[in-house]
Amino acid sequence: MSTSSVKPPKGPDMRVNLCGVEFASPVLAASGTFGYGVEFEEIVSLDRIGGFITKGLSREPMAGNAAPRIIETAAGMMNAIGLQNMGVRAFVEEKLPKLRSIPGAVVITNIFGFTIEDCLQVIEILNDAPDIALYELNASCPNTSHGGMVFGTDPTLLGDLVYRCKMASKRPLIVKLSPNVTSIAHMATVAAGAGADAVSLVNTFLSLAIDIETRRPRIANITGGLSGPAIKPIAVRMVHDVANAVHIPIVGLGGITRAEDAVEFLLAGATAVQVGTASYADPRAVENIATGLRRWCLDQGVDKVTSLTRGLKT
Ligand SMILES: Cc1cc2nc3c(=O)[nH]c(=O)nc-3n(C[C@H](O)[C@H](O)[C@H](O)COP(=O)(O)O)c2cc1C
To answer: Where is the Dihydroorotate dehydrogenase catalytic domain (predicted)?
Structure first.
């Protein structure tokens, strides 16, 4: 499980170090699109990808929002799942032991709470569990009426949340930022100032789709979060903005479907990337993108993938 023993492979060196944890590849599976990891064991070689982020874990199990809560759009997906999850205790008891037996599975747990106290309790439970590499704090879910995006769009609340969670964490803390703000660079600066070890961006964009026959929203929650190829150029721009504002590592995501998309995020300033919606179209997308990125580096004569980070020429 420890990644410090990852051996340098032949060909390009794809290893990246994120907050002191070494990953065999910079390509990770994004939260909410890869279950709890175990569901993908038969489909994806977990040792070929960098690692994965679990579905957001809350203090108590959550049923999520009413259906319909996921729809297709012209260039991606809208969802308002509402953080349905089994709860942190069930994850630790039922899923984590199984994950520990899968070679190469590097686990990052995504944390969600309606209040700061909720998040602290989730962290306390995870602190006592073995073999988790990092925590990702979801300060950006657009699909709940409190917590989530509320934290990620108010700088004072975000600073408070991050500071208290960081103080409680026994593991490095990545803070996942909302794109639904005027200046994501400012929010990243607040998170870094409050002790975040890294930031990940972006979560989904608040959006609305209307069925013109019924004149009703296509999602029961009325609004949902837009993800997939449509958001990629905005997400890359945001990673670039954040790279100019903070010195902590950045994990970039939003609409990555091929290795070349991952390269864009790295050049914009990301140390690692995550693949989300693409796993719905192809459950092996994360592995294919990790393999494709390695091949791209080989073809382009890139010896170390880390040399791409912040490589944008302006
Ligand atoms: C169905 C679905 C569920 C998601 N659930 C979570 C979640 O529980 N926690 C979280 O931080 N992000 C969640 N996300 C956001 C994704 O991790 C990611 O930030 C976003 O979809 C953008 O990346 P993509 O375009 O590659 O999907 C979810 C996204 C989707 C599509």
So the answer is: 15-294
